[in-house]
Design goal:
Length: 551
């Protein structure tokens, strides 16, 4: 007889109270573990994943195929991935006529050629993905993976490499497009995509692999609109002066200097609405501008500020004049017509303009500049007070070279502040208008605040000309010109303390300017080099010796 009992055996019996104790104990252990983990900081996870995606070759379209006829390329990955800026990151060489479709399907990257795309015969293609392929968790990129195939029977194996630098700063240029053509025609870069292409890295370096033997034109541009064509004037350019010859024994390294070609000069805007004044704006700063008016009974003054030319004219005998703006260096003349406008009410029109920088050195003049040319001045209406009480009597002169400015000369007292007041009628402009009250403040430094540089530039070519600049905060403080000499020695005084740089530029065409490349003329950028100078401190004298070399 078998008896069935509904009682739980002692070994399996649990009370409700004991179950609660077990649960509470487990919760306490979890809380204790978490508190230990965050003690002294926040809850920490494992180490950051820094491993990029890996291509599963066995599941992907085979790389380095010959006689390639596929229309779709599949790259299967070992993890989930995404595409980051494929339009700018993916570079196909030779460039395709139609943009391929690049997408993600599952864990695979799919490249699908356009139905109308016709691949070149017997050409080796390279698809470089840059940093477009990234994992979705930590954005780790599969850097510079290239899928290579040939439509012919062999994979081309030659290559070139090099660097691209800014021609003026010598800094490396990133993301410049290097373009290689089979044709040597100059016009090809404007209208045809290159046969090979690559982009420069952060350090300016580039490499083009899988090239064939032959002769090539090499150009680099900043391809702003991503069309694989050179589009001046907004895109910078560099080019190799000679044809590049590739054969089985050479792997050339080249350096390219990138610059923005100087645009042809043209008048972009004119404004003659002001009273007997014209403002003419060019697309860039003219090199050597001359302003001329076809009249002997008219006064004309002009001032060039960057790309703007301000012209003031005055005559009681005529109502209109032809005006000629000539850039003597580019042999260009713009002929304009000026007309005398109805004069406004004779109210003061003077405004101070910072056209000349005051040095604050005790031995230098003080300049007051205005917005219209000066005709006469009356010193009895000029009050300059030294400190709080002493009135001085300086010498005054209207500059012949720039009649917009009044030069005030005086033996300025170091470490002083001068209060300047021009009472009404102190100045009269060419239109007979007087000034209203004008005030200014002119601080003078101590001589010991300034420094001195003894400069020597050696190993110059006596047949060349050079622009030599001392720069402070990247702006010229002193500009010298050396021509027909192998060594320049100069003592430079009254310099503000600071970290100076020395720039030497070989002025091949002697226009007193650095010139960028001229592609169609076959002219490379003018050689220039900048170097740091020992820090100049107050009341110091330092020697700067520089040996010029073409770099």
């Amino acid at each position: 007889m078998i008896l069935v009992s509904n009682k739980i055996p002692p070994c399996r019996r649990r009370s409700v109270g004991s179950n609660r104790i077990i649960v509470l104990a487990a919760l306490c252990m979890v809380v204790l573990a978490v508190s230990c983990a965050v003690k002294g900081g926040q809850l920490q996870g494992g180490e950051r994943d820094e491993t990029p995606p890996v291509i599963l070759e066995e599941k992907s379209t085979a790389n380095f195929q010959t006689q390639f006829k596929e229309r779709t390329i599949v790259l299967s990955m070992d993890e989930w991935v995404k595409l980051e800026n494929p339009f700018t990151q993916v570079l196909i060489s030779p460039p395709l006529e139609k943009r391929p479709d690049i997408s993600i399907k599952g864990k695979s990257v799919i490249v699908k050629f356009d139905e109308e795309e016709v691949l070149r015969e017997n050409a080796t293609y390279s698809i470089n993905f840059g940093e477009a392929i990234q994992d979705i968790t930590e954005n780790n990129p599969l850097k510079n993976y290239s899928f290579v195939f040939s439509t012919g029977t062999a994979i081309d194996s030659l290559q070139i490499s090099g660097t691209i630098i800014d021609a003026y700063t010598a800094e490396p240029v990133e993301d410049a497009l290097v373009m290689v053509y089979e044709s040597a025609q100059d016009s090809i870069i404007y209208k045809e995509k290159p046969f090979y292409a690559s982009r420069s890295q952060e350090d300016g370096s580039f490499t083009i692999k899988n090239m064939k033997e032959g002769s090539f034109k090499v150009v680099a541009i900043m391809d702003e609109n991503l069309n694989y064509l050179y589009d001046p004037p907004t895109e910078s350019l560099a080019f190799l002066s000679t044809v590049l010859v590739l054969d089985g024994d050479s792997f050339p390294f080249i350096q390219l200097q990138l610059s923005l070609e100087r645009e042809d000069l043209y008048l972009s805007k004119k404004d003659t609405s002001g009273w007997n004044r014209g403002i003419f704006t060019y697309n860039r700063t003219p090199l050597h501008l001359v302003v001329d008016i076809d009249s002997t009974d008219s006064d004309i003054y002009y001032d060039l500020l960057d790309e703007e030319i301000f012209v003031w004219y005055h005559s009681d005998a005529r109502t209109s004049w032809p005006l000629y703006l000539r850039d003597t260096f580019t042999v260009q003349t713009d002929t304009l017509s000026l007309r005398r406008n109805t004069p406004p009410a004779p109210t003061p029109s003077f405004e101070k303009k910072a056209r000349i920088r005051n040095s604050g050195h005790p031995s230098d003049p003080y300049y007051l500049c205005f917005d219209t040319p000066l005709s006469v001045f009356d010193t009895t209406y000029l009050i300059i007070v030294e400190g709080t009480s002493d009135t001085i009597s300086p010498e005054l002169l209207i500059l012949d070279s720039l009649p917009l400015c009044l030069e005030v000369s005086y033996a300025w007292k170091p470490d002083s502040i001068y209060q300047v007041t021009l009472l009404p009628g102190a100045l009269v402009d060419i239109y007979g208008l007087p000034n209203d009250t004008i005030t200014d403040r002119y601080p003078i430094g101590n001589v010991e605040r300034f420094g001195e540089i003894q400069l020597t530039v050696d190993s110059l070519d006596g047949d060349q000309a050079y622009i030599i600049e001392l720069l402070l905060k990247d702006k010229p403080e002193v500009t010298l010109y050396a021509e027909g000499q192998e060594t320049l020695i100069k003592s430079i005084y009254k310099l503000k303390p600071g970290d100076y740089e020395l720039r030497v530029t070989e002025d091949a065409n002697r226009n007193h300017l650095w010139d960028p490349a001229d592609y169609l003329a076959g002219r490379q950028p003018e050689h220039t080099h900048k170097t740091s100078v020992e820090t100049l401190r107050s009341n110091w004298e330092i020697e700067v010796q520089y040996i010029w070399t073409r770099k």
